[in-house]
Design a protein that fits this description.
Elements (H helix, E strand, L loop, with lengths): L1 E5 L3 H4 L2 H9 L6 E4 L1 H8 L7 E4 L3 H10 L3 E6 L4 E6 L2 E7 L1 E5 L6 E4 L3 H6 L9 E2 L4 E3 L4 H7 L8 H7 L2 H13 L6 H9 L9 H12 L4 H10 L3 H5 L5 H14 L5 H9 L3 H10 L4 H11 L10 H11 L1 H14 L6 H8 L1 H4 L9 H5 L8 H15 L6 H19 L2
Parallel strand pairs: 3-6
Antiparallel strand pairs: 1-10, 2-3, 2-9, 4-5, 5-6, 7-8, 9-10
Helix pairs in contact: 8-10, 8-11, 10-14, 11-13, 13-14, 13-18, 14-16, 15-16, 16-18, 17-18, 18-19, 22-23
Amino acid sequence: MSDARVLDAPWLRSGPSARVLKLLNGDGEEARVVGGAVRNALLGIPIGDIDIATTAPPTEVVRRARAAGIKSVPTGIEHGTVTLVLDAQPFEVTTLREDTETFGRKAKVAFGRDWVVDAERRDFTINGLSVDADGAIYDYVGGLADIAGKRVRFIGDAAQRIAEDYLRILRFFRIHAAFGAGEPDRAGYLACIAARAGLATLSAERVRMEMMKLMIADGAAGATIAMADGGLLQTILGGVAYTGPFAAMVAAERRMGLKPDPVRRLGALAVAVTEDARRLAARMRLSNAEARALDSMGHRWWRLAGMDEATARRRLYRLGAERYRDRLMLAWARAGGDGDGARWQMLATLPERWSAPKFPLKAADFIARGMAESPALGQVLALAEDAWLAAEFPLDEAALKAIADQAVTRYTRDIRP
């Protein structure tokens, strides 16, 4: 049915999306914007990709695009999806479908012309809305009421929706964290718990994608607790889930005014030692950069608790600003909000208040003191750098001369055979 409400969105009236709708409408065919773009527009939040459904079969979509000089890419043509590219903006255009046989991601589909059937095969009611080129909203599954009530519900039978694609378990919690309020929908929650073994069939890449989105959602703290209570996080993480430190990390980021960071939050949720970081990197196929960040966070984070500012400066010098802050934030989160937030915040803001100088001594300074050009130079430089840090980064010539002399003497006495 067409709801009385009309969506007043500028991208429906002009621009690339309006051109795609005009291209696909007419001559017996109809096209509408569907899914997340409609949901976000109704909520008044930024939209991402604009997906379009149409009664036209894929061959007709390609024909019309070609006639209009628009690039078309057969990204999933066997399932009815063609991507049209206008002004460097991609639009996924999918022919109305109905499942004839479902087995996970490999469902067999038949193309159709029934908008109700197409809506009923989608995942959640708030994603089942569509809007035509004139802004008329079509709601066949109760999505408008659920948007107003901040409810995330599966369309139809939750168990059936999940069996069609087990990734919907993670999407249920992620979308609830982003758009829901209060406790997750009871029927959906119980269905996710009952089907949790299906998570093991998902590719690491798909799990990573959903988990990283979940990590930065507004309601992530509550969602992770619900997932842990339902026995879902153990399957995903392969280890202990620390929901308390995760909630503390969210609170610390907000107190600091930091942008939510999915890797930092994942570290709070699942990393106590570096072995946890390495397990997660392999289990979730993290990028090299993500794996290194988690590994650094897990490395002796407890040594940052209770340190004074002089010690913090040495840590910052060794780690660099980004690694220092992430590890410090993990130590803060694992302290569980110990009531001394001002002290933690002071330490966390150190990179903004102080820039570490460069170590001023060079190999030439030690060659001038009789050291040969050999691997020993590196050892003497390391001794001198340690002494320079302990002396709190002096830059005056006399102090540097004393540090260099002492490093050579120490190496000669204690290290060189």
